Amino acid sequence: MKLLFDFFPVILFFVSFYQARFLIDNTFIGKLIDPEKPEYITATLIATSIAIIASFIQVGYHWLTTHKVERMHIFSLLLITVLGGITIFLANPAFIQWKPTVLNWAFAAVFFASFFIGEKNLVERMMGSQLELPDFVWTRLNLSWIAFFMISGAANLYVAFYYDMEAQPDVRMETWVDFKLFGLMGLTILFVILQAIYLARFMQEDENGSEE
Question: Under a CB-based contact definition with an 8 Å cutoff, are residues 145 and 111 in contact?
Fold first, then answer.
């Protein structure tokens, strides 16, 4: 459920992008759209606007229910507001397409910096109260998250700006929108599963040691 909550703005971006024509024809949004712009541009502007609103709702709902804010949500909100705002103002999808890369690479930088700040890396700080693992395992986990964020950011850049260059702009935009939801979410789910499999080995060893 938390994964779906984290991807809430992305899911709404996807839905509103493909339902842009319906929104234009049946809501007040149609009055705000320049009919001279290509449909994929107007769809991107609508989806970006809705994703920004969804990000504010995400942060507000989390605060109301937990009285806390997650730094990931706040940073994502700032990014989508700035880059999404530029996309809307200039009617240029490129800025919102940079957002997943900037977000993932920023996370990679934070995880890397945690090696040099404090006594524990970021993964151990987040999970150390729940698991007891050797130091080298915490190091591997932190490095794996850095690699995951770097690869995710690079994959987004490739799909957004270099994949299928001969296709029409609207087709390329649709490909990126699909990847933004299914590709990045799929990579996240796969990574979490692989990490759980890796951790299971050490948890079993710990249980066997406790029994002995």
Answer: yes
Quick check: pTM over 0.85? yes
| H helices present in 27-127, as ranges | 29-32, 39-66, 71-90, 94-113, 122-127
Q: Are 95 and 83 in contact (CB under 8 A)?
A: yes
Q: Which two tokens stand for residue 172?
A: 């390329």
Domain assignments of the chain as residue spans, ordered by start = 1-92, 93-212
Instruction: Report the alpha-carbon distance of residue 16 to residue 124 in Å, rounded.
Output: 38
**DSSP classification of residue 91:** T
Question: What does the pLDDT look like over 4-59, one tens digit per residue?
Answer: 667 888 999 999 999 999 999 898 888 888 888 899 999 999 999 999 999 999 88
CB 97 within 8 A of CB 115: no
Instruction: Indicate the SS3 state at residue 168.
Output: coil
**Which single residue is written with the structure tokens 């995951």?**
148
